[in-house]
Amino acid sequence: MNKSILSDSDINCLVILGPTAVGKTGLAVRLAEHFTGEILSADSRQVYRGLDIGSGKDLNEYTVPYHLIDITDLSVEYSVFEYQRDFYNAFREVLQKGTLPVIAGGTGLYLDAVIRSYDMKRVPENTALREKLSALTMEELILILSDLKKQAGVQVHNTTDTESRTRLIRAIEIETYNAAAPLEKSEKKAGPLRPEIKPFIIGTTFPRDMLRDAIRKRLKIRLDTGMIEEVEKLHRCAPGLSKGASWERLERLGLEYRFIAEYLQGRIKAREELETRLGIAIGQFAKRQETWFRGMQKKGVDIHWLDHNGSREDCSVERRFEKTLALLNTLRA
Questions:
Q1: Which of 46, 67, 202, 293 has the fewest CB within 10 Å, making it most exposed?
Q2: E strands along 185-289, which residues?
């Protein structure tokens, strides 16, 4: 790895995480350029072909090779199980080249699954359970999922599971399967072959008012540059789907795709209302992301948050790049 400050340290990858709209991609690319690295995306919507503006792929920013973007289509309900499997394959590939994996994204579940090496298993469909659940209300389904999570000793962190009936039923299906067939210790030890991941994790965010402003400005740009038209096109003809994506499928993608799908169906009447409601929802999502990352820290994940003095200069990629190098230099001290 050229210029590798990491060559004599006990880490083999960098992770750049943080809430939406703080420029994680720009910082990750800058670091990958410096260390001769490649980007591994950790974004649950960038895996889908055709979700470009709304998922913020910004492929024009990539001056280095990237992975885990545009790897599936909307005919697939891509899950954390598939992500972990595909991530491990990409991670090995990058290391075998002698280059540095630079993992960047804001999907906390995906990041946590690879950083803490979740023990994952494929859960089959349970037709009988699905038929039984089909007669229940959303409120009843949410209570069932909460009870199953409580019995397993965990909380419902992924709120998108409770916003879509399809995802909610699938989440109950998974928790029911896990409760009936828990992994034995021997199975965990003999789990899927996985690479050793020794990350140095950088967290980046802005002060609350600056983050809200960044979200608002980015949303306006995306709306002005074709995000509504993108969703309309996906409904007409989406990669992997002969008849295009249903409104329900688009809504299950959350945030931009959900709100714009509602707008195109007339459930949100005006573009101004769309922009206002979507901006608020993205701000709430950013808060949930930061809550998730704090939860990771409580579980022992060491995140090195870049300080921020509240200035515009501190938002720049170059300033954060310099601060990241300073942190990495402490590895040699």
A1: 67
A2: 199-203
Contacts of 70 (CB under 8 A, 6+ apart): 46, 47, 48, 49, 57
Give the SS3 label for residue 42: coil
Query: 101: how many CB neighbours lie within 10 A of its CB?
Result: 25
pLDDT band (50, 70, 90) for residue 1: very low
**Segment 31-86, tens digit of pLDDT:** 999 999 999 999 999 999 999 999 999 999 999 999 999 999 999 989 999 999 99
The predicted-structure confidence for 184-227, as pLDDT tens digits, reads as follows 433 344 345 789 999 999 999 999 999 999 999 999 999 999 99
Decide: 277 and 245 in contact? Cβ < 8 Å.
no
Chain-centroid distance of CA 118 in Å reads 16
- Sheet with 66-67: list strands edge to edge: 66-67, 37-41, 100-105, 13-17, 199-203, 303-305
Quote the CA–CA distance of 319 and 326 in Å, as a whole number. 11
What are 66's two structure tokens?
């990237």
β-sheet bridge partners, residue 199: 13
CA 9 to chain centre: 28
46/216 Cα distance (integer angstroms): 21
Fold of 13-120+190-329: Rossmann fold (3.40.50)
Neighbour count for residue 300 (Cβ, 10 Å) = 7
Q: What is the rounded CA–CA span in Å between residue 260 and residue 253?
A: 11
pLDDT score at 148? 85
C-alpha closest to that of 175 among 140, 151, 158: 151
* CA 256 and chain centroid, separation: 14
Burial class, 212, CB count within 10 angstroms (exposed 0-12 / middle 13-18 / buried 19+): middle
Check: CB of residue 201 under 8 Å from CB of residue 17. Answer: yes
- Using CA atoms, how far apart are residues 31 and 201, in angstroms rounded to an integer? 13
